[in-house]
Design brief:
The complex is a heterodimer of chains A (436) and B (338). Chain A is mostly helical and 436 residues long. In chain A, α8 crosses α10. The N and C termini of chain B lie far apart (49 Å). Chain B has 338 residues and is mainly α. The radius of gyration of chain B is 20 Å and the shape is globular. In chain B, 78% of the residues lie in helices and 1% in strands. Classes of the chains: A mainly alpha (436), B mainly alpha (338). The interface between A and B is large, with 69 and 67 residues.
């Protein structure tokens, strides 16, 4: 395998692994902070027990998320040094701000929270969890601003043989970044709420700690319902931005070859990039795509043929990842809306509880697919329209990358196995109730 | 010029803060098999750094991130040149970080043994490798005019580089023992005191050898000879090192720890001042060296980042000092959360 392919493989596998843990950290930190706040407000011990039980799972997840994040900070230098040298003036500053302004907050206060139960007042302790939640989510904000800049580079100029910042405000406030931030954080809350509902469903089916898990389930359900809807709405707004800034990606997502008005969305396609067409096209809904991305049935949407062959992303992967993500997003809405109507009769709906138990992995899958759309769909660009992926890799020996890739796969496999094993055990065991 | 010079020293300061903070918990990890005789000892040791190590490690991300933001070319060339060494550091920090969380989650000797080993290797390896890397930077790295590295991992394992590795390890182990002294009681406390006293002469000897070897192996002293006032930094560092032993004898444990902290900061600045204005000197040709002036970001980015650093670094320091203050007492069984 060549250097660029290996480097991409390493980046993709390490970041995807990292992002198995990040969304739960982002979402659950907020929900746990909410639970602990409810405890402080109401004095209801169940909320304290909920805080402690869900925090146990949270902390195992948090540890794996944090350590795999270290890799990401350095990997741009080790494996993508040409990219780093070229865009560091803009991109590097965003990562540095993340570490200095926000990552410190989450990492310092998580230690205070774990070890501070007896050293802090109830209020202060709950406040510390909010600092962790805010720190985690603001860290994600800066990383997403950096990623949005790779998708839609703004506020820079090419000078001295590199990209230099000219408008910091434009970089941090572009709509592309804002939608991405809210879409991603909403999806993290969906994942966390399905995590809570799924584990609660398991225990409710076994009639364990009914009060505890009913309350947990309902807490999860509230967040789940709101953010399943949010993630969908923001996803649509995101799509509008992609259509405007990355038309080739949008065309690949929809496997649309011809530029046309009244652009259709298809229920099913099988793209044939060789012949620049779809081998199979079923269920065209005329004008739907135009309406979705331009809010006008008659609007013209660019097809893939409008772009030179070497500027088109892989159509099959992008389009299927996109459909998978959207389909799952619809399922999340249906499941949470149904649950909302049955929220006071949960125990009578064992089929629903079973479905929710097995639904835990689905948001994980949806989020990974979302990133596949974002990153594969950006190809062949590393920074859209500015730097090609092929030009960004470090001039290191192939053997070095092979060595590190094998190392990451081995270590991450052990880490993932141990982490999920521990979470599984703790989830199955259930809470140790303080009152018992 | 002024902006870049400021950034050079900020860059040095962030690395110094990283070594000062994470240094003691890496040191504790390296001492873990030696001082941690019983299950209780081990638990006290990991819980002594439990509330702090994660926040400490962020200084590394900040140092790395700031290198990226302020000196992108240095970030690119440094981390791709030192590829294998840096990957080993990352692997080590990864397995170490999860070990604290995982170790006590399953009550099985084999499970604990695995994570105990990870804590030890994950601590000792970065301690040595950071020393090796920085000593090599002090003496120059074989990079050509294109920033391409003309060597491999073993190029770094030269005598001066290895000496740097030993020096860092001893600095961190000394610093770690001093933290265990503060947070433990009874037998573990007494053994940590003895350990700290035993390490000290070795550290002193290696530090002196390092200072002498730097004269012959590196150009670090040129800046000192140009401005002899700078020798004060070396003097302070040596006094701090002597202070470690002095306060150990006086049983003033906090001052002992502050002395080893100051020693680490001083040792880092000894090198950083000597390097100036280079961040990543070339051993092939001085013209290929990456300096604060030829490898920095644009003035606008440097200004934005300066504002960020001036706003946030003092704030971070303030809440981290608050945290240290909260967790400076003896570790009691009810404080053990791991």
């Amino acid at each position: 395998m060549d250097l660029v392919t290996l480097s991409r493989l390493q980046f993709a596998s390490t970041i995807m692994f990292h992002f198995l843990f990040v969304p739960l950290t982002l979402g659950l930190s907020i929900i746990i902070a909410y639970m602990e706040t409810r405890y402080v407000q109401t004095g209801d011990e169940t909320y304290l027990n909920m805080t402690k039980f869900w925090a146990k799972l949270f902390l195992v997840n948090f540890a794996v998320g944090v350590v795999t994040g270290i890799t990401q900070e350095f990997q741009f230098g080790t494996n993508w040094s040409r990219y780093s040298a070229y865009v560091g003036d803009v991109f590097g500053s965003l990562l540095a701000i993340e570490a200095t302004a926000t990552f410190f907050l989450e990492s310092t206060f998580i230690g205070v929270w774990i070890f501070g139960w007896k050293k802090l007042s109830k209020k202060a302790h709950a406040g510390v969890m909010w600092l962790v939640a805010i720190g985690s989510n603001l860290s994600a904000v800066w990383i997403l601003i950096a990623n949005a800049w790779m998708q839609s580079p703004v506020g820079f100029t090419i000078r001295n043989g590199r990209a230099e910042m000219v408008d910091f405000g434009a970089v941090v406030s572009q709509p592309f970044a804002i939608y991405k931030i809210f879409h991603t954080i909403s999806s993290a809350l969906v994942l966390a709420s399905f995590f809570i509902m799924g584990i609660s469903a398991y225990h409710l089916l076994k009639n364990n700690h009914k009060e505890f898990f009913t309350k947990s389930f309902k807490t999860g359900l509230g967040f789940g319902l709101i953010f399943s809807l949010m993630v969908f709405i923001l996803g649509d707004m995101n799509g509008v931005m992609v259509a405007e800034k990355q038309p080739a990606k949008l065309a690949a997502m929809e496997s649309l070859w011809e530029t046309t008005d009244m652009a259709p969305s298809y229920l099913f396609t099988w793209p044939d990039p060789e012949n620049e067409r779809n081998a199979v096209e079923i269920g065209a809904i005329p004008g739907l795509l135009s309406f979705l991305v331009k809010h006008d049935f008659n609007a013209v949407v660019q097809g893939l043929k409008d772009f030179p062959k070497d500027e088109r992303p892989p159509v099959l992967v992008t389009s299927y990842a996109f459909r998978g993500m959207v389909g799952l997003g619809v399922i999340f809405i249906l499941l949470t809306v149904f649950g909302w109507f049955k929220r006071n009769k949960l125990l009578e709906n064992s089929l629903y509880l079973k479905i929710m138990m097995f639904a835990i992995p689905l948001p994980y899958l949806a989020i990974q697919l979302g990133w596949v759309v974002a990153e594969i769909g950006r190809q062949p660009w590393l920074v859209y329209g500015v730097v090609r992926t092929a030009d960004g890799a470090s001039p290191v020996a192939v053997s070095q990358v092979a060595f590190s890739l094998v190392g990451f796969v081995l270590i991450y496999s052990v880490l993932g196995a141990a982490g999920f094993y521990l979470m599984f055990q703790k989830a199955k065991k259930g809470p140790e109730l303080a009152s018992e | 010029m002024v902006l870049q010079t400021r950034w050079f020293f900020l860059w040095g300061l962030l690395w110094a803060l990283y070594f000062m903070t994470d240094g003691f918990d890496l040191g504790i990890g390296a001492l873990y098999p030696v001082l941690g005789k019983t299950e209780e000892d081990k638990n006290i040791m990991i819980n002594a750094m439990g509330p702090l190590w994660d926040g400490n490690e962020v200084w590394l991300l900040t140092a790395g991130g700031v290198t990226f933001a302020a000196f992108p070319l240095v970030y690119a060339v440094m981390f791709s040149s030192l590829y294998t060494a840096l990957m080993l550091i990352l692997f080590a920090l990864i397995i170490r970080g999860v070990s604290f969380e995982f170790r006590n989650k399953v009550d099985h000797p084999g499970w604990k043994k695995v994570w105990d080993t990870c804590i030890f290797i994950g601590s000792i390896a970065p301690a040595i490798l950071f020393g090796v890397a920085f000593a090599n930077i002090f003496q120059g790295i074989p990079i050509d005019g294109e920033g391409l590295y003309q060597g491999n991992l073993f190029t770094l394992l030269n005598p001066y580089g290895l000496l740097g590795g030993v020096l860092f390890l001893l600095l961190f182990v000394q610093h770690g023992a001093n933290w265990i002294i503060i947070r433990s009681e009874g037998d573990l406390h007494d053994r940590a005191v003895k350990m700290s006293k035993n390490i000290w002469p070795f550290l002193l000897v290696v530090a002196v050898i390092f200072l002498v070897a730097s004269w012959f192996a590196t150009p670090l002293y040129q800046n000192y000879l140009t401005s002899p006032i700078l020798f004060v930094v070396i003097l302070i560092t040596v006094v701090a090192l002597l202070g470690v032993r002095f306060y150990l004898e006086k049983e003033n444990w906090f001052s002992t720890w502050f002395s080893s902290a100051l020693t680490i900061v001083g040792a880092t600045f000894f090198g950083v001042i000597g390097l100036f204005p280079n961040l990543f000197p070339s051993s092939i040709n001085p013209e290929f060296s990456l300096s604060a002036y030829n490898a920095s970001s644009s003035p606008l980015t440097l200004k934005i980042m300066l504002v960020v650093v001036i706003l946030f670094v003092p704030l971070v320091l303030a809440y981290q000092i608050w945290t240290y203050n909260l967790f400076k007492g003896k570790v009691k069984p009810e404080d053990m959360m791991y």
